[in-house]
Amino acid sequence: MVTLYLRHNDSFESHPLKNLKEPINPETIFWIDIFQPNAEEIERIEVLFDIKLPTKHDREEIELSSRYWEDNRCIKINSYFFVSFFFVESTKSHYNESVSFVLQDNILFTVRDSELQTFEMMRTMLLTHPKELFSGYDIFIQIFDIRIDKDADLLEYASKESDEIRKKLLWEHGSHSVEVLRKISTLQEFTLKIRQSVFDKRRILTAMAKSPKLPSTIKEDLSIMMKDINSLIEFIAIDDNTLDNLQNLFLAQTSIEQNKIIKLFTVASVALMPPTLIASIYGMNFHFIPELKWTLGYPFALILMGLSSAIPLIYFHKKKWL
User: Fold this and answer.
1) The three-state (H, E, C) secondary structure of the chain, written as one string
2) For residue 141, what are the contacts with CB-CB under 8 A and spacing of at least 6?
3) d(Cα 228, Cα 189) in Å, to the nearest integer?
């Protein structure tokens, strides 16, 4: 589906490409959003605007030269947009979706294959509160600004989750469960993916700030966004250390619990050794055992075994090993 966003006086209008039958003045077009396009739609856009759009393979390239490319006519950008579903039992609970941006003749072309909340927010903002948006560059900057704010919100949420896990590990009994370990692992994967996304945006904005095509006002906005991104990177580094500490704390508590169990079995083994020795002695098959025909021999053996078990337990208790 291809949607064109046209400026009319002080407002914007959206028009699906398939509904357009009359020629449109290119100067009124600011943004063309290309969502899950078919070959026919791609061909029509490329012919109408004399442009070469990135393919799906181009969007997924990881080389730096493939993430940002500029010539005399246009700027082509492939960027990661982080998608997250917190603690969903799925192998794809969070991932980076590649989105292509092409800036040519003051028009922004976006090519994507997934529904992204950032674009829905941009669409709503454009149609209801257009602000000071006078070119495709302004819309591009606004999309990235929305995405950076969204990343900050996700990091704040992850930080709160980390704090809850820390409190649970420190103060709740039996907190060293598989569920807690799964949450820590999920947060670590989350941090890894969002760091990849944020670093990718920093590289793109750094390269873009050097472009002679950008107006000075756009470069000022880029400078502010770079500061925001740098603060996010610092936050991610702190969150990484927190998660590492949580994992170490989890492993330490697991080790302590295992040591308690081993100590319990050790104490039980030591306490049962004397009664076992006594029972072994009186279980010998020798004919002449002094207590063999003694009337009180059986109660005496039981009392002796009980005392031999109690004495080690009392000793361990006084040593505070129990």
Assistant:
1) CEEEEEEECCEEEEEEHHHCCCCCCHHHEEEEEEECCCHHHHHHHHHHHCCCCCCHHHHCCCCHHHHEEECCCEEEEEEEEEEECCCCCCCCCEEEEEEEEEEECCEEEEEECCCCHHHHHHHHHHHHCCCCCCCHHHHHHHHHHHHHHHHHHHHHHHHHHHHHHHHHHHHCCCCCCHHHHHHHHHHHHHHHHHHHHHHHHHHHHHHHHCCCCCCHHHHHHHHHHHHHHHHHHHHHHHHHHHHHHHHHHHHHHHHHHHHHHHHHHHHHHHHHHHHHHHHHHHCCCCCCCCCCCCCCHHHHHHHHHHHHHHHHHHHHHHCCCC
2) 218, 221, 222, 225
3) 22
Q: Could you read off the pLDDT of 66-121 as tens digits, one per residue?
A: 678 888 888 888 888 888 765 444 445 678 888 899 998 888 999 988 888 888 88
54 in Cβ contact with 78 (< 8 Å):
yes
pTM of the predicted structure, to 2 decimals: 0.74
In the CATH scheme, what is the homologous superfamily, with its name and number, of domain 2-255?
A: CorA soluble domain-like (3.30.460.20)
CA distances from residue 183 to 23, 144, 295 in whole angstroms, order as listed:
54, 29, 65
Going from N- to C-terminal start, the domains of the chain cover 2-255, 258-318
- How many other C-beta atoms lie within 10 A of the C-beta of residue 58? 16
Tens of pLDDT, residues 9-68: 777 887 887 776 666 777 788 889 999 888 888 888 888 888 888 877 777 776 666 678
The pLDDT value given to residue 108: 92
CATH class of 258-318: mainly alpha
Q: Which two tokens stand for residue 248?
A: 């170490």
Q: 112 has which bridge partners?
A: 35
Judge whether 5 and 31 are in contact, CB under 8 Å.
yes
